[in-house]
Amino acid sequence: MALLADVISWALILAGGALSLIGGLGLLRLPDVFARMHGASIIDTLGLGLILVGLMFQAGFTLITVKLILILLFVFYTSPTTTHALARACLYGGVEPEAARKDRARKDVEGEPPSSP
Questions:
Q1: Which pLDDT score, from 0 to 100, does residue 78 have?
Q2: Residues of the chain under the 70 pLDDT cut
């Protein structure tokens, strides 16, 4: 039984680490701030979530598991809220998504009238 818990734990920790690396690459490679927020959300929700669940399997049913659950709940509630606030602040500050910028440039080249909001 302990071997099964160790295998599940390490599989979850390695998967969380892999997703954290993928999210980190997304932070470096994605074109604009809105796409980079997606990479950051992969890191905090999936990466950290899998790592914490793997650590819960390692800890067993102890007070440490309760603390890890509280950390996981805190991250799951605060991460979307901060991402939403950051996206709203970017839009309010005049930052435009890359897709909208390309679409507007295409319409300027083709001579289409701008769409009304």
A1: 92
A2: 108-117
Question: What's the distance, CA 20 to chain centroid?
Answer: 9
The token pair at 107 is 């319409």
Hey, what amino acid is at 39?
A: G
Enumerate the domain spans of the chain. 2-110
Q: What is the pLDDT of residues 70-88, one digit of tens each?
A: 999 999 999 989 989 998 9
Distance between CA atoms of 56 and 69, rounded to whole angstroms? 8
Rg (alpha carbons) of the chain, rounded to whole number: 20
Give the span between the Cα atoms of 23 and 15, in whole angstroms.
12
Question: CA–CA separation, 78 vs 76, rounded Å?
Answer: 6
Burial zone of 54 (CB within 10 Å; 0-12 exposed, 13-18 middle, 19+ buried): buried
Q: Which residues of 30-52 are buried (b: 16+ CB within 10 A; e: fewer)?
A: beeebebbebbbbbbbbbbbbbb
